[in-house]
Amino acid sequence: MRDSLLSSPGSLAVAATPAFAFSGLFFRRLPAWGEADDGQRDGDRRSGRICAPDGANPWQEYWGESYGLELKQWMLTPVFGMLEAEGKIGDLVIDVGCGAVPVTGLLKATTARKRILVDIASDNAESAEAIGIRLDAEEAGRREGLACRKALLRACAFLAISPRTEPRTELADTIVFSEVLNYVDFRKVIQGFSVFLKPGGRIIVINLPFRGNASLFSEKGLKENRQLYEFLDEHDFEIEFKAFPKRPARETDESQEFLLLVAQKPFRSNRIGARSC
Known about the structure:
Number of domains: 1
Helix content: 10-25%
Distance between the termini: 5 Å
Order of helices and strands: HHEEEHEHEHEE
CATH architecture: 3-Layer(aba) Sandwich
């Protein structure tokens, strides 16, 4: 058993720098769900270079307050409700690539629930129930790296736990990846964050291959849904729920459809995220 949350996980370390960066861009006030949105709606753009208009702020265009709020609310509200009713969300939720309006804001607030909102452009804001942490998602597995160490220290302080005495790494009940897997090495990101997911905890993925700013996509980003299924199967995750909310009528090939997926981490595994501190 390792001594610290900050110690290196060895074989799970990742080595890449991010495929994109937005230096100098920070969050503005996080609007509440349901506030007026006259910006970009979903759009069914499926392929090709989907880039921000000339002069637009690319971060705001694709992760800001007006990006697909109604679509995500429509997709996620019933799924979150189903998981809540079955007691499967839990008290600690990590929202990876949360953007300006985290989808986890749709979850019911409780006295025990805490949310950790991770984004490369986070303003590091903090409240009693949520904390924003500025971190490139690909750094999550590099626990010996300065960026990850700083993020872990802030998260531990928010949760009022000691990073040097907490007996296990796995802390989160649920981790949400919302439209981020096109932009990063999706295998490294899921693997890096899954270390912090409790055995039996869940990941929730919302993703559409090729939706977003194609000029910022990672070469190792998620290109089709089958890649995700294969990765989860390889690491013993059980897919509990899978839906394609925007699938065209009579479409049978799910490889590049808008995907909403819930998968459970194994209670015991010799592979991903199974190591102790």
